[in-house]
Protein 1
Amino acid sequence: MTPAPTRIATLDLIRGVAVMGILAANIAAFGFPEFAYMTPASMGAPSTPDLIAWTTTFIVIDGKMRGLFSFLFGASMLLVIDRAEANGEDPATVHLRRMAWLFVFGIAHLYLLWWGDILAHYALVGALAYIFARLPVRWLIGVGLACIALQTVELTTLVAYTFDLHAAAHRPGATARVITNWQLLADQFGQPSPASVTRELAIGRGGWRDLVAWRWTHGAGPITSLTATGPETLGFMLFGMAGLRSGFLTGEWSRRRYTVIAVVGIGLGWICYAAIAAFDIAHGFDARYVALSWLALATPLRPLTIMGYAAAIILLARPGGWLTARVSAAGRMAFSNYLGTTVLCTTLFYGYGFGLYGALSRAQLYLVVVPICLLMLLWSKPWLDRFCYGPLEWLWRSLSRFAWQPMRGSAFTTNRSD
């Protein structure tokens, strides 16, 4: 049997940055109702610190960390497929079994813990991505760009509908149904009615059973997420496959190429996102312009910005350094860390825990992010010094292989690629 390849250090490092960045992106979705995610003005005029926090998050973090994580998911998926073939296993069976169990984890996460799950979505898109796994780099990039274009067209159509529905709801003689439909759409883009604010805060401050019942009856399921953001996620995964095959994500390119990509990707991306943020602020976070900003304008900018982030992380990495080792360990345990942050944050904010839902300002929420990220850095490496996998990584691997995997022994002396 061919030995399993060693892990690729750059992938773990980038994944570690991404999993901590995802927490920073998601913290508003933990601490506030869903309608507050896109705008700081959903429950009143924002304070200056809240506006700064929102603007910084929009420019630097939102969408980029999810995209970076999707890049890494595609690359890791390809590693698993390649390893299965090298070991004489059927790659489709190995891959689809992993996606099936990931879907189970995601559904449990979605309905039992938190509405913002991405695992079930990744499982469905990842299963589809297998079709493209054998394409050459050029085709992976081409199909990925087509996916981003499709997503942009789909979201632009939704934005056009938003403007049309607003106009219809504000015409003289508009029917009650049209007005209600507009308000439902406005709720989603951060312009909720007072009744919606009161209702959503009460739900978040309720008991666990009430929250589960609400998610089951009102939450967006994985099929909804697949139709809403599936093309973009698939595009990112294909870019990740191309990044692995081309050597970009493995650190094989020259420092000059990484520098150019980092400067252009981050520089151009941040300038454009800053302009979009200013556009949103200038329009007073009107729901129509929030939809335009977040959907039609931001979506096509993400791939280049994400590439810039990946290049910058590879450039700044210091092999053997304390911080690099800690961030890489957090990335190696990204599954455990991702679900662990959900448990911590829902316990902190929801009514069955400490009940801080809606009690902190947006700026104050980021004070929660720092200690949780530090916790990831502090616990991941000591755990992997003693065990081969993170706890949930071990469970996922064991279930996917229908056999309990060995757990004892340092992960850093074990050849694994998944």
Protein 2
Amino acid sequence: MLRLALGLLRTRPHLFAGAATALLMSVAVITMFGSLIATAIGGRGGSRLGMIGGAFGEIAMLMALFTVTNTLSFSVRGQARDMALLRTSGATPAQIKRLIRCQVLWLTLFVSPPAWLLGSWGADRFLEGLATQDIVPAETTVVWSPWPPLIGTLATLLVGAGAAKIAARRIVRGRPSTVLAQTAEQGKTGWLRGIAGLLVIAGSVPLVVFTARQPADKSAQLALLGSLLFLVAVGLLGPVLARLSIVLLGLPFRLMGRRHRGDAGGALAADNLRGHAYRLSSAVVPIALLVGLSTTFASVSGTLQEVAPPGVYAESDVWLRGVELAMLAGFGAVATVNTLASLTTARRREYALLALTGATRRQLMRMLGTEATLTALAGVVLGVLVAAPMSMAFASAATGELLPTIAFRTYAPLVLGPVALTVLTILFTGVRATSEPAVTAVVAQ
């Protein structure tokens, strides 16, 4: 089974690029912040170093869980036809699950050595930055220990195995012939998923109230954790929220299509996205992740700069928030690019059928451009809505007012960045997906 898993990895490496990157980042950040905690335990850097390592490591593990789960699910889904063919040749569902777990094992083992080096290097650089900000003594050095790298690999492997198990359920359920006949686009919001999303929102309300009553320093950390909880709710309720956002945002495009006597460019894109809410939610959630976290950080940093007294503490705290944002933005960018590229590539047959019915490549790219714009806007809207409750709660705790202070000169790039990343990823992948002859693409699917 290990040999077969390795063979599949070598045959289709493009399917696993995003998952490998996410696994590498997961092992690296756990190694990095685990090394900082080990340094603090060893009596160096003071108690604040241990608190920083623990707080950053907690958030990094949550982000790693999200990103690894997201990227691995697409890698497994991309092999649905291959796994169905294996089942038709006699493979059992248990063997398919074991094969996928072996793939995760190989990927984790491959990326671990460079991730260990990256994590160790990151711990050194981060500690230097802490010393520059006078958070730790200047002579502090990282204490080497074998445990952070090993824990990083083991924790990432467990997360990856769990994500692969969840993703494999869809492949092994039902008959192989049914899986072969399915497109990559089927799926719907189940009632259990919807109830879970509503329960997460309901559970987040007390956290919002609690955050508003805490001191500013504690409230800032709670604001980020609360935004992550609201992002979980968006992920669970994604198809419903995505369809609603496209109905509203796509209205101008549909009106424009009527005005130009049925010009289907924008109208087709809007209706297409609304009709494929499951696919749309998979694309929107990573964008909402990027925008939501960016908005929360911008709110916390801007408000802190306004209310905190001038001095080293305020500057160092803002610096820490910036480092945390950069780390989480890296995870969010990997999830966004992998999701958008996978979804766009999976629609090769759809593009080919449109081409065979008379659509030109220019028209296809116009449609993709409009879809990319609507997808990005939907992600921005949901991201801002995700950040709003906790940002307002933090503002209430820090200033007594509901509206946080945001430096728009700093905030604008944080929003425009995900939008540009979305549009460029979809268009670049779309150019490659439509370059294949239409007949070949239809037959290949």
Protein 3
Amino acid sequence: MRRYARTLAAFALATSVVAGTAGWVSGDAQQALTGPPPGSAQWRTDGALGTELPDPERSTPAEVSAFFAGLSMRERQLLVVRHPSVVGNLDGTPLELRYRANSLALAAADDPRYRSLAAPGRQILAFDPRGRGQVAEVFGDLRAAHRVSVLVPGSDNDAGTFDRKVAAHGAPAGMARTLHTAAGPGTAVVAWVGYTTPVGVGIDAATGSLAEAGAGRLTRFTQGLTADGLPEPAVFCHSYGSVVCGLAAHRLPATDLVVLGSPGMRADDAAGLRTKARVWAAKDPTDWIDNVPNVRFAGLGHGTDPTDPAFGARRIPADEARGHAGYFAPGTDSLRTFAAIARGTATPEGAHAPADAQALGGAEARDGAQALGGAEARDGAGTLKDAEATAGAHALEGTAR
């Protein structure tokens, strides 16, 4: 009887989410960008090297890496010039070639939306102008870094909004830049907008179809980093990006999986993610995401709140963050902990390791209760708030994720 009651409650809540949001977003439904990079057809038929080139869709990142390792510098540069859109997005390709290829692709695009990405000195690791556009940028010296992080953002992010100034610490480039600054020397951070994100709060954001497509792309991207000889990354996942990470978790080569402002990871608990990575979760007390029902029913909703103690993630303190886009704001407890994770100095209990007192803001190790932020277990009624409040809070907070 109790299970039946929970099912009815989940159905009612899922229905209220749809009823409260479907009217806004009927025209904003997104089609996931899938498949190989642009220009792949020409790449497949190119015989300039006298050998078959790796198939951009079927070859693994390890096979791509092995192919480029067998080429001369002249041959590598020839492919960069002839096929910049493929080389710049082909996971497993040496990052130095990808930087050069994407610089050429951006110059050729000459699109006002992406002009800032073509500025000298930027390290663009992926660029695909199709649809709303996808991009990945590196902050720091990725080749020399001892610790690497990948940042996966949520809704309303694409190549055109990548550099937005509004709520900058919630934009992909802003989050990655502040994390790299806080983490310090020896680290590098990749801001990865490599999937089609939802627009607004509605059906796309409440379902997992875009996340499923994104999970495959994220998996291949991280496998490409390790195939290129880079360390396994810590993966930071914001908002809907945490749904992507949850679906990819069992395949991701990652040391840590960090979710913040998460609506759920499509798993009942951390064990259900089937990952060897350490799982961390943060949610600040003013984040409107707390108004989103943590249910999964008939394809709607993303499940358990990762900051719920029952989920089993290490809780990251976030009392000093403000709003859904404030987790990377300088001076916050959440950013200090993120930086410790990015450096590999965070303790298993979720407190800061004292290796760099200045970067950590003089934080001391906390006991388990404090690391959990004093959170108490909530009953279903306490966490499943009115869906209408979500829309109102979202409108006040802005769409930055």
Protein 4
Amino acid sequence: MPAGVLRLSDVIVPAVFVPMVRRLAVEKTALIQSGAMVPDPLLDHFLAGPGLTIDMPKLNGLDRSDGENVSSDDPTVFSVPNKPATGDEIAVRLSRNNSWSEMDLVRALLAADPLAALADDVAQYWAYRRQKAAIAQLSGIFAYNALATDANHIQNSMTVDLSGLNGGKFADGQTNFHGSAFIDALVTMGDSMGGLVLVAMHSIVYGNALKKNLIQFRLDSEANPTIPTYMGKDVTMDDSMPMPAAGVFETWLFGRGAMTYGTGSPAVPNEVIRVPAAGNGAGQSTMHDRVEWSHHVPGTAYVGTPAKGGPSNANTTNNLAAATSWRQVAPDRRQIPIARIVTREF
């Protein structure tokens, strides 16, 4: 190797690089940092073993509509205990990977601290892709909730849809994002609305809200007012938020722990391959990075049939964004602290 030429193999020691990337990726994922996604050791344990899905039998909360007994002094009258209802929640494994050549990563390799720069680049990528996977899964759950009412759910009980008002035409203050619609969406969450921690918006919705002075800013760790909020709740802006039609956008509300997550480690999470004959003998190095994830919305179950590497983000049979991939197993929608607002912004 010519003097002064830095190769991927010079920078990457998997035992150092992989933990650094995984930690940074968690720190850069807005859903995780807000508290909307929280770690679940059970999912970590699942990812450490075999299997494409994990069954998680859960005891549902006590039915508060059950009447209490009236005490008496009659020794012949016995109370009959209530039996807690159960639900079988199911999470699914997501096995993902990507690879980059030395040429793709040249900027990081030229940095003063190439290992830190490379780890930051890869972590940024995986944080974005993890959030995309979470958004696809939530899209599927909202799509399921929009299906006709059945024994498991009430149609659109998680949604406030303004897009069809005014004959499906834009009307400022009526079809676009505003405070009254936000509160209506909160109310669908019932008494779990008090745990709201995050509002996820498309940049178009965020920009329109900003123009109307609806967005405030709180201080970051360095006392700079850089963290956007709405009604005191953190706001994350993400252009991968669903757009059902031209000018129509979805805004999502998350309670704390609305989604749980696990992170696993593939057998070979990272490796660098050098092909000396590539480039007609000039040689090429390629880094392969692999991840194992599981995301779960408590109160729901994956009911598809996953492929070997798990479902993709697509809105097709068995995949994350498909309505038919999901079912509500919680007896009450209010036990699932997510909601959405569908608005027409222009």
